[in-house]
Amino acid sequence: MKTRREKLTDQAIRALTPPEAGQAMVWDTLVRRFGVRVAAGGAKTFVVQYKRRRATRRAMLGHFPAVTLADARTAAKRLISQVEQGQDPAAERRADRKAMTFNELALEYIEKYAKLRKRSWSADERHLRVDVLPVLGRRVAKDIARREVRDLVEDIAKRAPVHANRVLVLVKKVLTVGVDRELLAANVAAGLARPTREQPRTKVLTSEEVRAIFAALATESQDVQDYVRLRFLTATRGIELLAARWSDVDLDARVLTIRPEVSKTGKPVRVPLVDSAVSVLRRRHEAQGSSSFVFPTARPTTSQAGRRTGIQEVYKRLRRRSGVSFVGHDPRRFCASTLAGLGVPHEVIARALGHQVPGITAKHYAVEGYAPAVRHALERLARHLDAILAQAEPAKVVPLRA
Fold it and tell me: Does one domain contain both 223 and 367?
């Protein structure tokens, strides 16, 4: 490489003639170890050269004229000062290029934290893929600023206020796991306030609203109709029903078992199946092929091991068609409220919903003893639902005694 020294000016740099081949180097006489490199193609790049552990290294400061000579000189002085203080800018830049992106950090969170600890890890994966990674995925995780996280959740809040809160909590958790695993020095989102103030949803569906929802179901697929109907008949959580395998269903014993890894309490829950639920499941079992899931996906490449993972789009359609403010938790709230209205004891309702029941006796010794009461409660719930859908007033039932 041809080299020479001269006082660099904007005019002098513009006048530099590219070599016929290779590169030529012109070193500045004002700032030691700073110069401009001219390539055969005409590109002119500002360079700082220094030694570190007996090795000669160069750091690129940008291309002329996009980077001005004045700015390049200032950057060169700052870099040389860093070298004098024992830093190695070139090594740091190489490390930055290899630094973990938020995309990689999110994968670390899913594979090494969420999958091992959260039954709802697939929801986290979906929210990251849809809401977060398109914005922050390619950013170096350690360089993400607090402002970027705030901007992300505030943009989401414009279209989905409550969902924005969930995304913020998720991003905070991903960054916290990064700190715990010594992949990040700090969690820049710590302390960020949720963009939306939430009020607990206390709405209970009325009889008219239930009829409107089921009427709107008529245009949905049989899978969707079966799923929603079973939510009302079993009082299960959505994720528990979507994750159900046929091996969890005993149609002869008329029981659905929620596996511990799926149950919110981390313990198996036996759900009695009323006649209507058995009919739905028996028909599905006879009509399905080889899938091991009660609700398989039509797109196995985009689901978790072949099962359906979400149904939010269905709820959106049902809200639009029925005119009812309907969310995924409403069937459980309807079941609980209906059973309470029928006089079913609280401890029976808690078990019908698969809630954790306090007390050693209740937890370990009285589980099977409540099974008949829970089955009877769900049978009464099914009759009440049938009466609603028949547009008749449910018959008055004598409350079940404890």
Answer: yes
Tell which residue, 223, 213, 379, 385, has the closest CA to residue 296: 223
Task: Name the residue range of residue 63's domain.
Answer: 2-92
Give pLDDT, residue 306: 57
Q: Output the DSSP codes for 318-332.
A: HHHHH-----TTHHH
Nearest Cα residue to 209 out of 330, 353, 377: 330
Apex 253 CA angle, 248 and 259, nearest 5: 25
Look up the pTM and report it.
0.58
Dihedral of alpha carbons 189, 192, 195, 201, sign: positive
Q: Which of 65, 79, 75 is nearest to 12 (CA)?
A: 65
Domains held by the chain: number: 3
User: What's the CATH number where 27 sits?
Assistant: 3.30.160.390
What DSSP string runs through 133-199?
A: HHHHTTSBGGG--HHHHHHHHHHHHTT-HHHHHHHHHHHHHHHHHHHHTTS-S--TTTTPPPSS---
Verify that 227 and 294 share a domain, yes or no: yes
Decide if 199 is inside a domain.
no
Bridge-based pairing state of the strands 55-64 and 2-6:
unpaired
Residue 176 lies in a domain: yes
Secondary structure element (H or E) that encloses residue 44, with its range: strand 44-52
In a domain, 344, yes or no: yes
Biggest alpha carbon–alpha carbon distance for the chain: 102
Give the tokens for residue 138: 């390619």
Task: Let me know if residue 185 belongs to a domain.
Answer: no
Handedness of CA 273, 401, 204, 167 (dihedral sign): negative
In 10 A of CB 354, how many CB atoms? 23
Q: Are 118 and 58 in a shared domain?
A: no
What does the pLDDT read at residue 251? 94
Q: Which residues of the chain have pLDDT under 50?
A: 300-304, 360-362, 364-365, 393-402
At 86 the three-state DSSP class reads: coil
